[in-house]
Amino acid sequence: MSIKDYFKKTVWESFAASGGITVDFVITAVIAMAAAVLLGIVIYKVYGHYYGGVVYSASFAVTLIGMTVLTCMLTLAISSNIVISLGMVGALSIVRYRTAIKDPMDLLYLFWSISVGITLAAGLYVLAALTMIVMIGIVYVFYHKRKQGVIYILVIHYEGDTADDEILRSLSRFHYQIKSKTMRGSTCELTLELIYDKHGTAFMDKINEIEGVKDVNLIQYNGEYNG
């Protein structure tokens, strides 16, 4: 028998066997998919709890659950049949995604979901559980400080020589850093990076009452401000 005939026979036998679904495969698929849903929800909760951007995207958070489940399903399909695996490779190779990822942490969550889905489909449930524990620990250790203080951009327009010192004096109890100062004629624009861990904006009223201050703008910082 030639190699060509052997390959044709192997593909045909695999294709013929795919017509009937065994009980073992059904049990394996149900367990893997159920675990994918459960761990996907955990990733969803972690993402929502430690999200540090400006606008929380509920649709992206739900995508993390769907990504875990779909990746698990695709891996199960590919591993069960050589014909399906060849078709999947051809179909997925022409898919192009145009959605822009603004926060690098979103890429981490996406790859986390994909990795968990593949691991569960391979039947490595202990590895998937250990990965979840390690990743949650990493996110907690390096990003829990975001809950202790939020970074804002404070933009103030003012006139006069004394307003500058009065503004900085009113912010003495905050952790701040001057990002830029722009002068347009008699009007100055002062931009500061401010760490603020309390609710309320009473300090803005005090700054606005300073003589020469025209307006005060407070913007939550998400890493995309260019100054």
Tell me the series of helices and strands, N- to C-terminal.
Answer: HHHHHHEHEEHE
Structure classification: alpha+beta
**Percent of residues in β-strands:** 15-25%
Strand order of the largest sheet: 2-3-1-4
In whole angstroms, how far apart are the ends?
A: 72 Å
Major beta sheet summary: 4 strands, antiparallel
Poorly predicted spans:
none
Q: How many helices in DSSP terms?
A: 8
Mean pLDDT: 77
Helix content: 55-70%
Number of strands: 4
Number of domains: 2
Quaternary class: single chain
Using the CA coordinates, give the radius of gyration: 27 Å
Written account of the structure:
This protein has 227 residues and is α+β, with helices and mostly antiparallel strands. The protein has 2 domains: 3-147, no CATH class; 150-220, 2-Layer Sandwich (Alpha-Beta Plaits). The chain is 56% helix and 17% strand. It has a 4-stranded antiparallel sheet, with helices on one face. A hairpin with a 2-residue loop joins strand 2 (175-184) and strand 3. Helix 2 packs antiparallel against helix 5 (104-121), helix 2 (23-49) runs parallel beside helix 6 (125-143) and helix 3 (58-80) runs parallel beside helix 5 (104-121). It is elongated and about 80 Å long. The model has no long low-confidence stretch (mean pLDDT 77).
Quickly list its features:
227 residues, 56% helix, 8 helices, alpha+beta
